[in-house]
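Protein Record: Sequence and Backbone Structure Tokens
======================================================
Tokens: labelled as protein backbone structure tokens, with as many entries as the chain has residues.
Task: work out the structure tokens from the sequence, keeping to the layout shown below.
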Amino acid sequence: MAFAEFNAKNLPEARQEFEEAQKIRQAALAVDPKHVKLRRDLAKAFYNLGYMDMTAGRSAQAEANFTSAIGLFQELATEQPEDLDHRKLLGICYRLLGDLLGDDRIAQKRQCYEDALSRFEPLAQQNPGVVEYQTERAASLLSLSNLESQIGKCRRGFAQHWREHAIVIRSLPLDFPRFRATNAIWR
């Protein structure tokens, strides 16, 4: 139900439902702390709460939720490296956390973007037919190049990241015709 509330923009009710579900998951994990599905669901809910907080302008809460999601997804990705979804969601959480951090935390922002990119590079290279991995890699490259441009540092790094981003973005509509038809940027 929380997803329906979130999609309907009824954020207070969605938040309440997510938080109630989190309490249930955490209580169940107290009994079985290694239960993979519960930990995955807990991590996904932390991600969703972080995203809701970020869109509502609650940066401190969003950071705490993304950080919790990162910790859980990191554990899951280490324990189950064959589960690509854990690795993908870990990368997304790192990128969003980087987007969230203020300009007074440049080193942490850069680290988040580099951590995101380090998750998406192998996913994109090992799975060239998965458009989501390609677009997330491109988004991470763009975030990193924008950061480096913003701080006026690492001109070579900026140019390199920007070129890599441009190559990925240009190839998407060629490699994925459905991507072209469904994304306004290509129209």
